[in-house]
Amino acid sequence: MENQYEVLHQECLSCQKCPLAQTRNHVVFGAGVSNAEVVFIGEGPGENEDLQGQPFVGRGGALLDKYLQAVDLSREKNIYITNMVKCRPPQNRDPHPDEVANCIGYLSRQLEIIRPKIIVCLGRIAANALIEKGFKVTKQHGQWFEKNGVFMMGTFHPAALLRNPHNKPDAFEDMLALQKKIREICDHTYDGTEL
Fold first, then answer.
1. Could you give the maximum distance between any two Cα atoms of the chain, in Å?
2. What CATH number is associated with residue 100?
3. pLDDT of res. 193
């Protein structure tokens, strides 16, 4: 499994499938544990992520880490985090549909290797691509959908929470719902030492 992951990672690092490759500093492949039962998927890297080559490391990432910590999750210990596209769209704009289409194969292969039981879509772009077209985060956040035996939930993107802090309590409720689902269906995400 580690070998498959590393082969895919190296392939992604040299990708030139779309114009985003011309403006990136780093490919932002993903971070976390390779046997994660829970995978978080955002839309694409921002400026800090592009500079560091890691997902969710800016202000939004710091906020996400606080939410994760509240339910005893972390990319170092028991989850995996990635994005729909692996290169930063200029000025942090939404990725274009053709950019997502060019990159979705990498995400699909990551998920085949990791084989999560739960996918959390961070924001509209990921939820529209993976859960259902027209997904409305403000109305449907925290709801569970099952696809091919994988439970999926859409919730607020951390950057959106920084712009609209009044949604933070709803995002926290989504994390509590995630914690409950993990306890129901996951084998090793929690090892018994969590709160």
1. 46
2. 3.40.470.10
3. 55
